[in-house]
């Protein structure tokens, strides 16, 4: 197979490139970028926290779009629908991974900067709810029986997609009505120019890594689907032979 | 038969079935009563404090109670393969859904009607805000729970661990609605802030999710 070898080569080059960018970005972020004037070295976690949070807000859209395509193709073109479903599950898993990293790094930062691990602030709460939504999506995929997993998951994904903006607005209203204790600083005063390259290289690196994970997981899911189809086909053939 | 006719037929069937057994209403009533008593023992609240927490406790009790009933809502249809017959019938599937959701709304509303006086007695409540707004908040909040709950119960119908799955997917989706009903109830009870914003949130939530449920129900019913 010529095509699969080329694809494999592209995959390896992409993997090496993203590892290279991440290595360079790590050097920029942890060694070369200046220490923050107010927060000291703990500030450097922003180079991991902000890129992962940006990306964990991006991948849910991939999931929603793939699920809509799945629902559209479900009866018109089942094979295409399976591809859409493979994209949906891989993006949901990457979302959960990135949102977990985002929450985790945020808690580490909060412990040092605010003195507490967690507060029910608007952004933290909405990110946690996003995480909960996609974990419940993965739970549904795990618990439903094989024949209908795709459809049920796609339906739930549409619900989650509608829920996210409502969650976002309601949490903001909730927090403005009950003001949280004020923790010093935190205002978005923008990044100092000397920190920008480190920041953007980290965004690039983690985006490339996320895309690599997504495509890798997609290929894996496609193989699983194909082997499932082969097994089903063999079972049908075997049953035909017995009948004769 | 018109669409409304189909909905009313399904509704009548569900009400009749429930009237014969009264299983889910009795179960919900006793379950929510237990939750109220347990919370009352756990927090031992004073009058001022109970005003702050009663909104939350009321809706948590109703949420848990309605989960127990919603899990049963579609099992009746599975007996004697009624659901397969429903799938084959020319009646619109969303009418089946709407009928069952309205039936569940009536059951939970009945539970609320019995629970509310008990709540007032156990927690020494009297509303400091505009009490009549409960007449708006209670139906809106109940519909938010019951509409999505009925839908997800149908979605989880043929899965493993059906009883476990329903709360796992219903709670995350319902969190904005829960926040809305709890905040609105607390606002009415304490009179400290305006419930208007939360009522609007509930209305928007209900419109959005009722539409999606009606549109996608056919997909879920015939998911194979």
Q: Would you count the extended β strands of chain B for me? A: 0
N-C termini distance of chain A:
36 Å
Written as H for each helix and E for each strand, in order along the chain, the element string of chain A is HHHHHH
- Name the shape of chain A in a single word: globular
Structural class of chain A: mainly alpha
| Quaternary class | heterodimer
Low-confidence stretches of chain A: 179-189
Number of helices of chain A: 6
Mean pLDDT of chain A: 84
**Major beta-sheet overview of chain B:** none
- Label the structural class of chain B: mainly alpha
In terms of DSSP E residues, the strand content of chain A is under 5%
Helical amount among residues of chain B, as a percent range? over 70%
Q: Could you characterize what this model shows?
A:
The complex is a heterodimer of chains A (244) and B (224). Chain A is mostly helical and 244 residues long. Helix content of chain A is 80%, strand content 0%. The longest helix of chain A is centred in the C-terminal third of the chain and has 48 residues, at 196-243. Chain B is an all-alpha fold and 224 residues long. Chain B has helices spanning 3-21, 23-43, 47-73, 75-78, 82-88, 93-123, 134-155, 162-190, 196-221. Chain B is globular and about 55 Å long. The mean pLDDT of chain B is 87. The interface between A and B is medium-sized, with 32 and 33 residues.
Descriptive tags:
heterodimer, A: 244 residues, B: 224 residues, mainly alpha, globular
Task: Please give a quick description of this structure.
The complex is a heterodimer of chains A (244) and B (224). Chain A is mainly alpha-helical and 244 residues long.
